[in-house]
Specification:
Elements (H helix, E strand, L loop, with lengths): L3 H12 L3 H8 L5 H8 L5 H10 L10 H12 L11
Helix pairs in contact: 1-3, 4-5
Length: 87
C-alpha cells in the first residue's frame, strides 16, 4: 500500500511538474514536499488541502483517505469552488 508521499510523487509525475513548482504553488517552504517524498513521511493536511485547491481535477482517492476528511469538512462548511465530491 502506498502512503501520502508516494501518492504526491505520482501526482507530480502525472502533472509533469517539479516538486519545487508544487511547493511554490501551494505556498509551502522549499523542501517540504521533497522531504516528504524522500523520507516517505506525511505532510500537514493544510498542504494536502492546498494541493486539492490548485489541482481540483485530481481524483481524491489518489492522495488517500485524508482527502475524504478534508472534502467532507469543506462540504459541511459550504466552501465555494470545490467541485470535488465524495464517490
Amino acid at each position: 500500500m502506498t502512503n501520502i508521499s508516494d501518492r504526491i510523487a505520482i501526482l507530480i509525475k502525472e502533472k509533469g511538474i517539479s516538486t519545487r513548482a508544487l511547493e511554490q504553488a501551494i505556498g509551502c517552504s522549499n523542501g517540504v514536499i521533497s522531504r516528504c517524498i524522500s523520507k516517505g513521511t506525511d505532510i500537514s493536511s493544510l498542504w494536502v488541502s492546498k494541493i486539492i485547491e490548485i489541482h481540483n481535477d485530481i481524483n481524491p482517492t489518489l492522495l488517500g483517505k485524508v482527502i475524504f476528511t478534508i472534502i467532507h469538512h469543506l462540504q459541511q462548511h459550504k466552501q465555494p469552488n470545490y467541485p470535488l465530491s465524495l464517490p
